[in-house]
Amino acid sequence: MTRDAERRPVGLGPLVDTPEPVTRTRETAASWLGAHVVRRAWLWRRELLLLGAVAAAALGPVAIAGHSGAWVRGAVAGAAAVVVAAAVAVGVPVLRRGLRAWLWAGRIRRRWDAACRWAGLATASARIPRVRSARACPAGERLMVRLPAGSSTADLEKAADRVAVALDVREVKVRRNPSSARFPEVDVVRSDPYRDSQGNPVSIVSPLADAARWDLWSGVPVGRDDLGQMVTVRLMGRNAIVGGEPEAGKSVAMSSFLAAACLDPAADIFAIDAKRVELSLWRHRLSAFVTTSIDDAIALVETLISDMDDRYEKLESDGLRNVTPDMGWRTKILAIDELRFFTAYPEKRSRDKFNLLLIDLVARCRAVGMAVLAGTQRPSSDVVPTSLRDIMGLRWAMRCATRDASDTILGAGWATEGYSAANIDAADRGIGLLLAEGGVPMRLKSAWLSDQEIARIVARGIECKGGAMT
């Protein structure tokens, strides 16, 4: 009889389907006891400890009263102790939340243990990636796991689909931890945070819609990631470029940065808008507004460069290298919509001058409390010069028609790594890939601000700045 025939199931299968333990040698009584009793008891240790505490509270008074023969009185006292403990645990919000989180973490660890074993991630010594910490998110959980010796983040990433099947979730994403290769981050995505229960797209509410004021140095809330968490990015000390196909949500993505700047009393906003209408909603809060004149655009950039040089002279005289929030310097934001109108301008002399000036501003403005925010449609290498894109700390690629167009915004090679905005569905407006300095592209949906909300933000921005509408 062949080995396969020997392993063929006979009769009814087990009522509970469990993964077979992986061991170096034939299973012994000790290994069976460790795999099926000790390990499972360890996975259920929280619940067993809780049951032990309840049993001690119930039986302790009985044992004490039993020495004097007052069994009934002891039983009543034990039942009362259990009731009081349960009432305190349920009635006190802090205790209730703590107990629920404690038991939830144990349940997550048990499910993860079984999923990893089903996915074949157990080593020869039956060790698997262990959950070190777990955090609940609106659309799933974010875990930090500890890899056993002999395994790698790449092994866990390759098995992500099998782990997702075992967990019965939408997706499992694995990211290498830059601080320690042994502790990767794992996102367990259970639902789509960008659609409702009927499958219809949902709008992401921006915290800026009702904010009275904002501090740009504290970061900008731009949207929600795949776990439904609000993503905040830092614009000061960086520059940002947003690109994508028409109707992909580029202008909506830029609105979050502009809203934060608008609500910051210490911020001055300068705008260049070739379409005239996208940035005009912010016009009453702008310090300067340029439309289709490339000469005016060049003059505005030259003015900002002159201001930048003055600031560097001031830093040099004070013995400083960069501006900090406590210095009280006004922040200056240059927003450019339809960048391609100027970077691909037909007249070569003006085009080259604008490109050189903008590259100079982007390259040097970060240390002096200034930032550039640029948006473009139909991104391509002749529209967004590589020398300009590569010095942008924040790159946000909305839906693109091709992988090359996505790489034009994010950088060459990301599509090959599996990060391509060309894979975003046309119906998922507002979803894009955000690349921050030192990380990998993150999929998120930008927060939505309606025209009416923008008008109210502009009014509050003017009020907190102490000005009057023009």
Tell me briefly what this model is.
The protein is of the alpha/beta class and 470 residues long.
Describe this protein with a few key phrases.
470 residues, alpha/beta, ten-stranded mixed beta sheet, four-stranded antiparallel beta sheet, 14 strands, disordered N terminus
General description of the model:
- It is a single chain.
- This protein has a 10-stranded mixed β-sheet. Strands 1-2-4-3 form a 4-stranded antiparallel β-sheet.
- It is of the alpha/beta class.
- 40% of the residues lie in helices and 17% in strands.
- It has a domain of 259 residues: Rossmann fold (3-Layer(aba) Sandwich), CATH 3.40.50.300.
- It contains 14 helices and 14 strands.
- It starts with a helix and ends in a 5-residue tail after the last helix.
Give the helices and strands, then pairings.
Blueprint: H1 3-7, H2 29-43, H3 45-66, H4 71-91, H5 93-118, E1 130-137, E2 140-146, H6 153-158, H7 160-167, E3 171-175, E4 185-189, E5 220-225, E6 230-233, E7 240-244, H8 250-262, E8 267-273, E9 288-290, H9 294-318, E10 331-337, H10 340-343, H11 348-364, E11 370-377, H12 386-389, E12 394-398, H13 403-410, E13 431-435, E14 442-446, H14 451-465
Parallel strand pairs: 7-11, 7-12, 8-9, 8-10, 10-11
Antiparallel strand pairs: 1-2, 2-4, 3-4, 5-6, 5-14, 12-13, 13-14
